[in-house]
Every structure is written in structure tokens, then in C-alpha cells.
Amino acid sequence: MNKIYLLTVLLLMHYWATAQTQGDGQILVLGVAQDGGYPHAGCTKRCCTMAWKDANKRRFITSLALIDEGTKRWWLFEATPDIKEQLEYFRQLTGGVFPYLPEGIFITHAHIGHYTGLMQLGKEVMNAKEVNVYVLPRMKQYLEVNGPWSQLVSMKNIILKDVCILEDKQAIASSMGCKIADGIGVSAFRVPHRDEYSETAGFYIGLSNRKYVFIPDIDKWSKWKMDLKNVAEIADVLLVDGTFYDSQELPGRNITEVPHPYVPETIKLFDSVSQQKRKILTSKIHFIHFNHTNALMWDTVAQEKVMKAGFRVAKQGQRL
Asked: Which of 142, 183, 205, 281 could form a disulfide with 232 if both were Cys (CB 3.0 to 4.6 A apart)?
């Protein structure tokens, strides 16, 4: 009787634990660098030479994995040029218990660091079968009509999907977005950026226990119709554009041609917030998408300065 009772209790505990993890998603940071990666092609400055010499200092291009521990399903955000290494990195981080390829890939826009990894799904490499790729309308058209991406579509290596769009903070606050699994929703919202080939999306990831916002690229916060401070009140974690620290990072180039909010500009946005509220909001902000020239990529002193101001610096391999 005691053995039967104990077995019953253990089975119930196992069922309860499994049930608790259904739809309980988490975010893994698979990369933090800007489109060129780190170290950067053609860079012979100190910021890159130390990474060329020490492989442990190298960083992949910005990408996230959304995982559902209960169902062992996962989704990838951005198909970067480093996707081959990042798929293996994900396998190592998760112990190989998830499928090698994700259920779907969410792509923000048509700049090289965000979609060109799709080539690895083609017949020359993996010859993948019907991987869902979630995009906004112009991005969808771009992939459908331009080679080599159109071949991925015609051969059904990928299946293009319209991503759900939420355009204001009220919608984000009241919804988990478009459901992709039990307790998990993902939605896109448009952000102002250099839209040569496609529009640019940010992503809202709604889980049963957390809300995440992912904006790796934006021109300036003042151009966005939403207020970052208001969004920070709604979300639990925001991974936002930290491409450049200041305007002096690209000597010989006109940095205004590649507009991004400098990290101090983002920090300054929260100066008008009361001290108590500011501490709560800023702790949610994680800078990501660092250019190789940005000291936040490689300088612990710079990182500590930002963290002392109450903000966070995203780390490759970080579990949120």
C-alpha cells in the first residue's frame, strides 16, 4: 500500500511539474553583435584585434531563441549570417533536447545581419522542409521575387507567413499577440528605420508569465509613434538598439547615414521619470546589437558604467 501510495504521489508530482512548464517560455540570447559581427571584417583596431587573437571574445550577430520547455518547441528571431554557428550554439545551450531547426523564424527586416542566414536552409546546404518564416508584407514580397531567396520559397524550403501586427501600446498591454503555442504569442510592430528593401519590425513576445519587447534596429526614438518609457511600463524585458555609444565611432564615415539612438540618448529618455519609478523601468532595458566599435561589446568599464545608471547589457548565452 505504501509503495502504491508513493508511486501515485510521484506520478502526480511529475504531472504537475510538466503541466506547469506547458507554454512557460524563456528567451535565450544567441548573439549580440551588429550585422557585421564581432570581430568585424576589415577591422584592424584594438577592439577587433583582441577578438581575432582570442576566439573566446568573439560574438555572434544579434539573435534570440524563444523556447517552450514543456513541449520542446522553439522559435528563432533573426536569420543571421552566423546561423550555422548559432544553431549549434543553441543545441549546446539546451543539451540537444530540442529539434535542430526551429518551428519558425521571425525576421525584423532586410538588412544583411537579419535575414541572409536563410541561405543555409536551401538545397545547397540543409535543403530544409517548410520552415515557417514570419515577416511583414514588404519583406515577404522581397523574398518572393528576389533570388536566391525566391528559390527557397519555390522549393518550399521555407513557408512565408504573415506576422500578426499590433500597432499601439494598448493592444500590446491587453493581448499576448498572435498565439503560436499554448501560452505563447508573438506580434510585430513597425519601427522607423532605413527601409531600402523592406519595412522594419520590432517584436512583442507575450508569455503566460512574462512580456518581452525586441527592437534591435531603430533610427531614433523620437521618430517612433510609441514612447519607450510607456512600453517599459508594460513589458518585463526590453532588448533594444545599442548599436553605437556615441557619434565618434566611425571616423571617416558620416554616421548620420546610419542613424541609431546612441546609448546615452536612450538613457537620457528616463531622466524625466521619478527616481523610484526610473529604477524599476531602467532595470528592464537590455542593450543589444552592438557595433564592433561600441565599447559595450568588449569593455567591462563601459558596461559597468551603463549598469550603474540602472540599465543592462545583453550577454551572449544569457537566459531571460
From this structure: 281
The CA-based angle 215-216-222, given to 5 degrees, is 60
- Ramachandran region, residue 276 (left: φ > 0; alpha: ψ -120 to 50; beta: rest): alpha
- Residues counted in the chain: 320
- Name the 3-class secondary structure at 287: strand
Taking only the tens place, the pLDDT of each residue in 8-65 is 222 333 333 333 334 468 999 999 999 999 999 999 998 899 999 999 999 999 999 9
Helices of type H across the chain: 2-21, 46-53, 83-94, 112-115, 137-145, 149-154, 169-174, 228-234, 263-268, 275-282, 300-308
Cell of 264: 546615452
Strands 201-207 and 184-190: antiparallel
Q: What is the DSSP string of 173-206?
A: HH---EEEETTEEEEEEE-----SSS--EEEEEE
Element (H, E) at 30: strand 25-31
Global pTM value:
0.89
CA angle 96, 98, 102 (to 5 degrees): 125
Task: Tell me how far the alpha carbon of residue 247 is from its chain's centroid.
Answer: 24
- Average pLDDT over every residue of 240-260: 82
Domains and CATH numbers, the chain: 24-313 (3.60.15.10)
Q: What does residue 138 show for φ and ψ, rounded to 5 degrees? A: -65, -35
The rounded distance, in Å, linking the Cα atoms of 120 and 215 is 24
